[in-house]
Write a structure and sequence with these properties.
By secondary structure, the protein is of the alpha+beta class. Helices cover 32% and strands 31% of the residues.
Length: 313
């Protein structure tokens, strides 16, 4: 009975113009858990010159405090918007930095950040830097809207954040954002502004929110892929029209060499770029743009695909 039902389904799909490979995929779908990313956000880099410049306004804004607080703000935003992302513990990252002998200056370099990421089996790592913290006049075009007086000042915090692919050491995206928060009227010789430290955190939180929006698309789960047979290098992706995929879209294909069951970390090898040539509701067929580095069927742990727009620097 089961064999008759399978034959009927395959014949029906064939009449609709589906390829044999896609027919087999539809008839026997595999249920797999979608992959999630492991993300490392170490303490941000805060230059000593910035600490000294804000010291006249607040004694609360120490270098250690700001390094941790800025990273925490971005961590919280990502945790809220991308709950599937595994965020590595800061304490473990600090310990790993000590073991690697890396200080703040070493973390500024991509190579140092990648070493940390690989040690903690992260897929991505964020290199965050507080570029500047300043007090300035509110621009005239914003005063009337925000009911700011002529002498009212605002705190401006500028943060730079780079999202690095640990596997390839590529800087996927860099975001520079300035957050602003009303401070009040101050005198030029002010030594301690009561609300200054609060406005720094609020302005930084705005910057972190904007950075998270830029990073969010890169945290979408990897697309499951499947090799068809030894006779072809064509790939089946487990997403199709229902997921918005269209002919002509490009993906980078990775073979999974090994998978850590405890952490979910996958050791992947880049095979090449494929183009979507046929799309069905729940799957699509892809062809390599050039000969893959290895035949897809060699990877017994499976394949993963990343949209080309999300895998470039």
């Amino acid at each position: 009975m089961k064999g008759t039902l399978r034959t009927t389904i395959l014949l029906g799909l064939a009449l609709l113009g589906a390829t044999p490979a896609l027919c087999n995929y539809y008839a026997e779908p595999e249920e797999k858990e979608e992959a999630t990313y492991r993300l490392a956000i170490p303490a941000f880099i805060v230059p000593t010159s910035i600490v000294e410049s804000v010291g006249r306004y607040s004694s609360d804004l120490t270098q250690a405090y700001m390094r941790e607080q800025m990273a925490d703000l971005l961590t919280e935003r990502i945790k809220e918007e991308s709950p599937d992302v595994v965020l590595l513990e800061r304490r473990e990252l600090d310990q790993a930095l000590n073991e690697l002998g890396l200080d703040e200056s070493g973390l500024m370099e991509t190579d140092g950040a990648v070493r940390l990421g690989k040690m903690k089996k992260a897929n991505f790592i964020v290199i965050g830097t507080v570029s500047s913290i300043s007090i300035g006049d509110v621009p005239e075009n914003r005063r009337s809207v925000m009911e700011y007086g002529k002498d009212v000042k605002e705190t401006v915090v500028t943060i730079s954040a780079r999202l690095v692919n640990v596997e390839t050491a590529e800087i996927i995206v860099t975001q520079n954002v300035s957050g602003r928060e009303r401070l009040g009227v101050i005198s030029s010789d002010a030594r301690n502004i009561k609300s200054f430290s609060d406005t720094v955190i609020k302005a930084a939180n705005y910057a972190a929110t904007e950075i998270e929006k830029t990073f969010r698309p890169f945290f979408n789960p990897l697309v499951e892929a499947k090799a068809i047979s030894k006779d072809t290098t064509d790939i089946i992706l487990q997403k199709g029209k229902a997921h918005g995929l269209k002919k002509g879209e490009l993906f980078r294909i990775y073979g999974i060499k090994s998978r850590d069951k405890a952490t979910g970390f996958e050791d992947r090898e880049f095979l090449g770029t494929v183009e979507v040539v046929e799309v069905q509701a729940q799957a699509c067929r892809c062809k390599f743009k050039s000969e893959p580095t290895m035949h897809p069927t060699k990877f017994k742990n499976g394949l993963k695909a990343i949209p080309i727009a999300l895998d470039k620097d």
